[in-house]
Amino acid sequence: MASNPAAGFTCQANGQNTPGRMSGSGSSCRYQSESEPDVAAIVKSLARLCSRDEEERASALEELSQGILECLGLDRPGSARLSKQTLLHLLRLSRSCPLQEVRGRATELLRTAQEQGVAVPRALASGPSAFIPAKQMLKEESDQDILIESFLSLGRVDHIAMVMALHPAYLSCFLRTQHALLELDGPLPRHWRHYIAVMELVCPGAEPRWSLAELIHAVVLMAHAHSLCSFVWGCGLNPEPDHIGGYTFQPPSPSHLPRSPHSPAHEDGRQELVDGAMEVEVLMKRMVELQQQEEECTQEEMVTRFERERSESIPTAVVRGAPPDLVLHLVEEPEFRYEDFAPRGEQAPPTMRAQDYSWEDHGFSLVNRLLPDMGQLLDEKFQVVSNLTYHRMAMHEGVDTHTLRKALWNYIHCLYGIRYDDYDYGSVNVLLERTLKVFVKTMACHPEQTTARIYHSFWRHFRHSEKVHANLIVMEARLQAALLYTLRAITHYMR
């Protein structure tokens, strides 16, 4: 989510009376009012770095550099220190700014500050993902334009955007939708929207009652935030370098690399890839066979196969700790959690038939009627991720992956009790091997339990961009499933 790129830039000469302390080296960090000349120049130049005019950006970069050097006291007697927030902004720019000249200058300024005795921060992680090697991901990035646009619009490029940039067409519509949800005109005040993305919807007995437009806006916001959590954990995204858990002022330890306590659990080692190539060949063969299959099942057999898939026992991690203190004070029911739709030995809740209430025939029009243009934005996102293909799979090119993508989408909806009468769920068992099912169910239902071992155990010969593609499918299928249940309830209320 967007943050003010100019917030927090402060500096102070060492003779003032408001000392702070930076952890690490004991160097003092002093603060002053943002009305003083040096600080005002830094704030202004930082904001101008997001200009779409190249000359304006170049001028702003020079002004930023000059302001930082003045804060360091290199052009006048006496010493000075940069504030913690100033240093963290420089760290962020040095790590994630898609404009090479800005990234390089921020790195130089941090180096200069360190040479002047300032305790500078360093990122705890080498890249945006704990699962995907930074060098390999940068190597796979095919389009920087969308990241530059994100930086110019929001003042930063977060880790979500950096990983989604492996699929630029999807990232483009994702950013448009998120911007519309959080920033454009709508029935909910802007500051409520971020709060809703974190909290429960309304307090019992709250007055006045919300309008249907406000309710739809809030529902879409919460479904968006919940499904995005699946993507964040499923891709092992690390905290931003300027956020809690993403940096340290401590020098690197020679014995081990530090890890953020807030990042997804790491596990040592990876499963051997000896049989990986064979798994790809088997999957390719099964896809071809399914595409050529002419046998038709009875409706009764289709239902049976769906129920078998829905009630299959797929293990997920059983260790569950308390929410971190950072979010615990926002949680009203810490024990609230996902429960299997069809637990063994219990009566399963009724299935939602897609033919009775679908996004295309019902949900889309309701959202678009009460929240103009949002239905169109969501539909575009669903369509892009459903049709996204590069006609390749692992080491093979020219592959029709439609059946595999459809199996993933329908399996997620199956986990949430949504059935398509015209789909043969036997295909799910044929195409999705067990390690993939474990990953998908963990990511969709218990995202915080996703580990590096679970991520690396499926599709062992596939590119990381292909695994990110799978994550996008799971995220959007989960989003649509949540919307279908809620929108159906609202539709029944309106009758």
Quick summary of this structure?
This protein is mostly helical and 495 residues long.
Features:
495 residues, two-stranded antiparallel ribbon, 20 helices, 10 strands, 52% helix, disordered N terminus
What can you tell me about this protein's structure?
It is a single chain. By secondary structure, this protein is mainly α. Helix content is 52%, strand content 5%. Helix 1 runs antiparallel to helix 2, helix 9 crosses helix 10 and helix 14 (359-370) crosses helix 20. It is globular and about 80 Å long. The two termini are 36 Å apart. The relative contact order is 0.11.
Topology diagram in text:
Blueprint: E1 11-13, E2 19-21, E3 28-30, H1 37-48, H2 54-71, E4 80-82, H3 84-96, H4 100-115, E5 122-123, H5 134-140, H6 145-154, H7 159-164, H8 168-182, H9 190-198, H10 212-234, E6 247-248, H11 276-292, H12 299-310, H13 325-328, E7 352-353, H14 359-370, H15 374-387, E8 392-393, E9 396-397, H16 402-415, E10 418-419, H17 426-431, H18 434-445, H19 452-457, H20 464-494
Parallel strand pairs: 7-10
Antiparallel strand pairs: 1-4, 2-3, 5-6, 8-9
Percent range of helical residues: 40-55%
User: What topology, given as strand order, has the largest sheet?
Assistant: 1-4
Low-confidence stretches: 1-37, 256-271
Question: Mean pLDDT, as a whole number?
Answer: 80
> What characteristic shape results from the CA principal axes?
globular
User: If helices are DSSP runs of H or I spanning 4 or more residues, what is the number of helices?
Assistant: 20
| SSE pattern | EEEHHEHHEHHHHHHEHHHEHHEEHEHHHH
**How many strand elements?**
10
Beta-strand fraction estimate: under 5%
